[in-house]
């Protein structure tokens, strides 16, 4: 099922936050979305997930514009983990994950033991089964993040859209989680800040800069020293090993031209 | 709940066993029906002249299926025409206000939301004042109808303002505050400018809630509205659950957010306006009962909604009984009673609430 964006534009006031972005997410791929803070990743994701109507352009899923699909149909196919989502309700960890079953439930198909099994599995997948009955408010940031991801998995989507999923996670869980997501039979779009993770897990990487999609390709093509300097303003060397995997090593900024305000 | 990490066997046991779900459902229903029946019976039995519960039961049997028990016609009249009607309306009113409280607290993601946040009680009081003091409708429009019209007018204004101000929870709350302030000011203006001392006192009594005038026609209005409202809310229980992490998250879980907002807020406005127009604006029930119910049954709306309705109904019947009996020979406004009990209860909940960030 191809998720595809054509000429997406979204504006806040007169400023184009997302500026003519076209992009095909191929079935089964892990597409990374990278770019500096404020480059428009979250805004683009909101449109890809069908949560925000673009000012112009369209997003289609298997050829059908998202705007013409019902919320429920969409939720059967696309799950989203937001960058920030909090609650004041006194939910338990498991109840938060169980919300992922919402689009599959109705008066005619009420909660069943199959739903229980799916929720249990999602909790176990993110290594949270032991905290199932803990109250949400007592969980750490990383634990909450893992539950958000479990909820998205419990939704059983075809396409999983993640906005900085590794936020708050320790390194073991960062890598474990990306690996978990990658090993599922899912199409994944993930906004990532860690470029080494992007290199490690993504089939392709899309680079956003000031609302524009400035590059799209395999990690080895995208993560070049020059692009890192241009887009992210860091000095880094990129090694590509025999297997084609790419590793980035950053250097201290002393070697870079100073930022403008520091020079004056 | 500062629950400690439990050993995994206990964790499993704490999850609802699916096989037990229908059983629990039936048991819950029975408990609810029994509680409500007991409260209604008590509401009908207790009063200035107390009447045995047995007489109440016989009266109901006589009236509903012509059982033909021999009863004192005066007792029977008091029970049937006044007290049962009154208890039923109190129950409907308590249930509706509590339901609206749950729904609005959940949709607006605000623990302090109550049914009157939409400007309804303020509008109702303006409508009532317009009829009672300014003589709008020149005798053909009842106080209730005036209040109902005022409530809907205020709600319409608040809704328009909220739509214009960006639709989100904050917009709705702020629009509600603006609307409430405006209509409260209008009410005060009219009362201070035109009301006689007696009228002012009467209006104040009405504003604090008054069930004295309730008769069967009110029951036949209140019951369908409360039941209909309960059904609409229950049909949206899962959608309300999905709002736990905000409306965006609800949307990504497949909830048609705009439609749910429109249906539920309109339903709440209609329920509240109806109840307020029958009994006046009774405070605190819509704010406190949802919190109390959450402590008892948790936050999932499939249980929270019916539990709140039940607790609200029972609480209101009890408050009505108290308001009639606390001071012999005098009926206190029921709103005074609900707030006198409600405010300390709310304080307790606030103190014992688990510390949340
Ligand atoms: N509703 C809005 N009104 C005005 N400006 C907005 C709005 N939403 C986003 N922006 C701006 O659009 C830009 C892009 O925001 P966005 O959240 O998409 O960035 P991002 O790439 O996800 O950044 P980050 O890496 O920090 O998450 C930012 O400059 C932000 O301030
Ligand atoms: Mg972002």
TrEMBL record, chain A:
SMART domains: AAA. It comes from Chelatococcus caeni. Residues 3-235 form the ABC transporter domain. One of its GO terms (molecular function) is ATP binding. It holds the Pfam family ABC_tran. InterPro entries: AAA+_ATPase, ABC_transporter-like_ATP-bd, P-loop_NTPase. Belongs to the ABC transporter superfamily. This is Iron complex transport system ATP-binding protein. Keywords: ATP-binding, Nucleotide-binding, Transport. It comes from the Bacteria. Gene3D superfamilies: P-loop containing nucleotide triphosphate hydrolases.
């Amino acid at each position: 099922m191809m998720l595809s964006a054509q000429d997406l534009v979204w504006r806040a006031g007169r400023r184009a936050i997302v500026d003519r972005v076209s992009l095909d997410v191929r079935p089964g791929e892990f597409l990374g979305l990278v770019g500096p803070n404020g480059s428009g990743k979250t805004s683009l994701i909101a449109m890809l997930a069908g949560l925000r109507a673009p000012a112009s352009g369209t997003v289609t899923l298997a050829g059908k514009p998202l705007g013409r699909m019902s919320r429920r149909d969409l939720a059967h196919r696309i799950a989203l983990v937001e960058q920030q989502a909090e609650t004041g309700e006194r939910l338990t960890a498991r109840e938060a994950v169980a919300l992922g079953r919402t689009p599959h439930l109705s008066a005619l198909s009420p909660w069943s033991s199959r739903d229980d099994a799916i929720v249990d599995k999602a909790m176990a997948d993110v290594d949270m089964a032991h905290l199932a009955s803990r109250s949400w408010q007592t969980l750490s940031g990383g634990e909450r993040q893992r539950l958000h991801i479990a909820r998205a998995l419990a939704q059983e989507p075809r396409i999983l859209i993640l906005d900085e999923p590794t936020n708050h996670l320790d390194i073991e869980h960062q890598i474990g989680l990306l690996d978990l997501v990658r090993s599922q039979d899912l199409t994944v779009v993930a906004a990532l800040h860690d470029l080494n993770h992007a290199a490690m897990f993504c089939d392709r990487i899309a680079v956003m800069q000031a609302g524009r999609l400035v590059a799209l390709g395999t990690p080895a093509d995208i993560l070049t020293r020059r692009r890192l300097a241009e887009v992210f303003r860091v000095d880094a060397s990129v090694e590509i090993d025999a297997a084609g995997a790419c590793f980035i090593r950053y250097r201290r900024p002393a070697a870079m031209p100073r930022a403008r305000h520091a020079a004056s | 709940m500062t629950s400690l990490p439990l050993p995994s066997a206990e964790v499993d046991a704490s999850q609802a066993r699916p096989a037990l779900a229908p059983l629990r459902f039936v048991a819950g229903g029975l408990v609810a029906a029994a509680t409500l029946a007991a409260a209604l019976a008590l509401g009908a039995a207790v009063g200035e002249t107390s009447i045995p519960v047995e007489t109440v039961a016989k009266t109901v049997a006589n009236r509903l299926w012509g059982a033909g028990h021999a009863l004192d016609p005066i007792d029977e009249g008091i029970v049937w025409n006044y007290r049962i009607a009154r208890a039923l309306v109190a129950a409907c009113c308590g249930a509706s206000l509590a339901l609206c409280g749950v729904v609005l607290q959940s949709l607006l993601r605000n623990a302090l939301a109550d049914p009157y946040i939409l400007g309804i009680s303020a509008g109702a009081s303006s409508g009532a004042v317009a009829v009672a003091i300014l003589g709008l409708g020149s005798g053909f429009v009842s106080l209730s109808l005036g209040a109902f019209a005022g409530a809907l007018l205020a709600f319409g204004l608040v809704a328009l303002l909220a739509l214009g101000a960006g639709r989100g929870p904050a917009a709705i709350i702020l629009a509600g505050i603006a609307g409430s302030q405006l209509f409260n000011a209008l009410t005060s203006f009219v009362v201070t400018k035109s009301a006689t001392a007696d009228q002012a006192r009467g209006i104040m009594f009405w504003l604090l809630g008054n069930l004295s005038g309730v008769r069967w026609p009110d029951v036949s209005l209140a019951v369908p509205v409360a039941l209909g409202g309960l059904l609409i809310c229950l049909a949206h229980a899962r959608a309300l659950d999905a709002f736990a992490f905000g409306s965006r998250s609800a949307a990504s879980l497949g909830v048609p957010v705009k439609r749910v907002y429109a249906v539920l807020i309109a339903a709440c406005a209609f329920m509240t306006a109806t109840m307020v127009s029958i009994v006046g604006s009774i405070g605190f029930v819509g704010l406190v009962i949802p919190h109390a119910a959450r402590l008892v049954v948790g936050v999932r709306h499939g249980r929270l909604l019916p539990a709140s309705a039940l607790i609200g109904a029972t609480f209101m019947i009890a408050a009505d009984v108290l308001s009639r009996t606390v001071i012999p020979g005098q009926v206190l406004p029921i709103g005074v009673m609900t707030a006198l009990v409600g405010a300390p209860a709310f304080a307790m909940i606030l103190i014992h609430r688990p510390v949340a960030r």
